[in-house]
Every structure is written in C-alpha cells, then in structure tokens.
Specification:
Length: about 100
C-alpha cells in the first residue's frame, strides 16, 4: 500500500502546481496586481495574482473574450496578452480591450 502512496502524492502535488498553467483562458497584465483580484464576466470567474489572470473556462468567440478582457482591465489594469484555448487576441483586439 505504501508503494503507491508516494508516487500518488507527488502526482497530485504536480497537478495542483500545474493547474493554473493549464487554465482555459489567461491574461497577462502590464503591471502586477497588489492583491489577489477576482473578476466575474459571462459567468466565468477569473483570478488575478501577480501579473497573471486565469480561468478554467474557454470563450467560444473572440468578441466574448474581448468583453472579458475589458472587465479584467477595469478591475486589474491593462493587459499585454490574452489567450483562450488556441485563440490569442491580436494587436487590434488588445487595443480595443485596453481602450
């Protein structure tokens, strides 16, 4: 029984450590937030810490991602990069987001 407990504990620890890196959508902030910030848009909860915001959810359209990005900018400040799944906001979309 003890044989599998150590590998299991290690795997679980890695999963928790990698969890935020595997989020469905991420935003990189131009400047870090001073305290952990939460942004809710379209029923999705974004958590911002340091210079990064993330949610487990992915957005179906770029327009919805831009709307979420604007909510992040309102709460946490300007962004330099935003992704959702395989989609990444381009320069024009980032400019619209940071308005």
């Amino acid at each position: 029984m003890r044989k599998w407990m150590v590998p299991l504990a290690a795997a679980l620890a890695m999963g928790f450590a990698l969890g935020p890196a595997l989020a469905g959508s991420t935003a990189t902030l131009a400047a870090p937030v001073e305290k952990e910030t939460q942004v809710i848009k379209d029923g999705k909860i974004w958590r911002c810490e340091g210079d990064r915001c993330a949610t487990d959810a992915e957005y179906e359209t770029v327009n919805r991602l831009v709307r979420a990005c604007r909510a992040i900018v309102d709460e946490a400040g300007p962004v330099t990069d935003v992704t959702s799944g395989d989609d990444r906001l381009g320069p024009d979309e980032l400019a619209a987001c940071n308005r």
